[in-house]
Sequence to fold (129 residues):
Amino acid sequence: MTTELTMLALSVVLGFAMILAAAQAATARRGLDWNAGPRDEALPPLTGLAGRLDRARANFLETFPFFAVAVLIAHVTGRNGALTFWGTQLYFWARIAYVPLYAAGIPYIRSLVWLVSVIGIALVMIALI
Fold:
Protein backbone atom coordinates (compact mmCIF):
# COMPACT_ATOMS: atom_id res chain seq x y z
CA MET A 1 0.00 0.00 0.00
CA THR A 2 1.30 3.47 -0.83
CA THR A 3 2.05 6.05 1.84
CA GLU A 4 -0.82 8.13 0.51
CA LEU A 5 -3.32 5.29 0.94
CA THR A 6 -1.91 4.59 4.40
CA MET A 7 -2.51 8.22 5.37
CA LEU A 8 -6.02 7.94 3.97
CA ALA A 9 -6.69 4.80 6.00
CA LEU A 10 -5.27 6.41 9.14
CA SER A 11 -7.49 9.44 8.51
CA VAL A 12 -10.51 7.13 8.43
CA VAL A 13 -9.46 5.75 11.82
CA LEU A 14 -8.99 9.30 13.12
CA GLY A 15 -12.44 10.32 11.86
CA PHE A 16 -14.06 7.33 13.52
CA ALA A 17 -12.25 8.12 16.79
CA MET A 18 -13.49 11.71 16.57
CA ILE A 19 -17.06 10.51 16.07
CA LEU A 20 -16.78 8.25 19.11
CA ALA A 21 -15.21 10.98 21.28
CA ALA A 22 -17.87 13.52 20.30
CA ALA A 23 -20.68 11.01 20.88
CA GLN A 24 -19.31 10.03 24.28
CA ALA A 25 -18.96 13.67 25.33
CA ALA A 26 -22.49 14.48 24.13
CA THR A 27 -23.88 11.48 26.01
CA ALA A 28 -22.00 12.49 29.15
CA ARG A 29 -23.52 15.97 28.85
CA ARG A 30 -27.08 15.04 27.83
CA GLY A 31 -27.48 11.61 29.37
CA LEU A 32 -28.03 8.05 28.25
CA ASP A 33 -31.79 8.58 27.76
CA TRP A 34 -31.02 11.26 25.16
CA ASN A 35 -28.53 8.98 23.42
CA ALA A 36 -30.90 6.00 23.34
CA GLY A 37 -33.99 8.07 22.57
CA PRO A 38 -35.36 9.40 19.28
CA ARG A 39 -33.86 12.90 19.82
CA ASP A 40 -37.07 14.53 18.60
CA GLU A 41 -36.91 17.56 20.87
CA ALA A 42 -34.77 20.57 20.01
CA LEU A 43 -31.92 21.01 22.44
CA PRO A 44 -29.55 23.90 22.95
CA PRO A 45 -26.17 23.48 21.28
CA LEU A 46 -23.54 21.54 23.17
CA THR A 47 -21.13 23.71 25.13
CA GLY A 48 -17.75 23.20 26.74
CA LEU A 49 -15.66 20.19 25.82
CA ALA A 50 -18.64 18.32 24.34
CA GLY A 51 -19.39 21.24 22.02
CA ARG A 52 -15.76 21.64 20.98
CA LEU A 53 -15.39 17.91 20.23
CA ASP A 54 -18.60 17.98 18.21
CA ARG A 55 -17.45 21.01 16.21
CA ALA A 56 -14.03 19.43 15.62
CA ARG A 57 -15.78 16.28 14.34
CA ALA A 58 -17.99 18.35 12.04
CA ASN A 59 -14.95 20.24 10.76
CA PHE A 60 -13.16 16.98 10.00
CA LEU A 61 -16.19 15.71 8.11
CA GLU A 62 -16.21 18.90 6.03
CA THR A 63 -12.63 18.43 4.80
CA PHE A 64 -12.24 14.66 4.72
CA PRO A 65 -14.28 14.01 1.55
CA PHE A 66 -12.08 16.40 -0.43
CA PHE A 67 -8.96 14.77 0.96
CA ALA A 68 -10.21 11.25 0.28
CA VAL A 69 -11.29 11.97 -3.29
CA ALA A 70 -8.02 13.76 -4.09
CA VAL A 71 -5.93 10.88 -2.70
CA LEU A 72 -7.97 8.27 -4.57
CA ILE A 73 -7.77 10.17 -7.85
CA ALA A 74 -4.00 10.55 -7.43
CA HIS A 75 -3.71 6.83 -6.76
CA VAL A 76 -5.89 5.72 -9.66
CA THR A 77 -4.18 8.05 -12.12
CA GLY A 78 -0.68 7.20 -10.91
CA ARG A 79 0.08 10.79 -9.90
CA ASN A 80 1.64 9.84 -6.56
CA GLY A 81 4.89 11.65 -5.89
CA ALA A 82 6.49 14.17 -3.59
CA LEU A 83 3.46 16.49 -3.61
CA THR A 84 1.00 13.74 -2.72
CA PHE A 85 3.40 12.30 -0.13
CA TRP A 86 3.82 15.63 1.67
CA GLY A 87 0.21 16.66 1.15
CA THR A 88 -1.16 13.52 2.79
CA GLN A 89 1.36 13.82 5.62
CA LEU A 90 0.43 17.46 6.25
CA TYR A 91 -3.28 16.70 6.20
CA PHE A 92 -3.13 13.73 8.56
CA TRP A 93 -0.69 15.14 11.13
CA ALA A 94 -2.41 18.53 11.14
CA ARG A 95 -5.76 16.83 11.76
CA ILE A 96 -4.17 14.87 14.62
CA ALA A 97 -2.90 18.12 16.16
CA TYR A 98 -6.22 19.89 15.52
CA VAL A 99 -8.26 17.69 17.84
CA PRO A 100 -6.52 18.46 21.16
CA LEU A 101 -6.08 22.11 20.18
CA TYR A 102 -9.82 22.46 19.53
CA ALA A 103 -10.74 20.37 22.58
CA ALA A 104 -8.61 22.65 24.76
CA GLY A 105 -10.18 25.76 23.21
CA ILE A 106 -6.88 27.16 21.95
CA PRO A 107 -7.58 29.86 19.35
CA TYR A 108 -5.35 31.01 16.47
CA ILE A 109 -2.95 28.07 16.65
CA ARG A 110 -5.92 25.78 16.02
CA SER A 111 -6.82 27.84 12.96
CA LEU A 112 -3.22 27.76 11.73
CA VAL A 113 -3.16 23.98 12.10
CA TRP A 114 -6.44 23.77 10.15
CA LEU A 115 -4.81 25.82 7.39
CA VAL A 116 -1.89 23.37 7.29
CA SER A 117 -4.37 20.53 6.71
CA VAL A 118 -5.98 22.47 3.86
CA ILE A 119 -2.54 23.10 2.35
CA GLY A 120 -2.09 19.33 2.47
CA ILE A 121 -5.23 18.85 0.38
CA ALA A 122 -4.05 21.59 -1.99
CA LEU A 123 -0.71 19.83 -2.52
CA VAL A 124 -2.48 16.63 -3.49
CA MET A 125 -4.73 18.59 -5.87
CA ILE A 126 -1.73 20.37 -7.43
CA ALA A 127 -0.23 16.96 -8.15
CA LEU A 128 -3.33 16.16 -10.20
CA ILE A 129 -2.93 19.19 -12.45
Remarks:
- The chain is about 80% helix and 0% strand.
- Residues 87 and 119 are 7 Å apart (CA to CA).
- The helical segments are 3-30, 32-36, 48-77, 82-103, 109-128.
- The chain has one domain: 3-128.
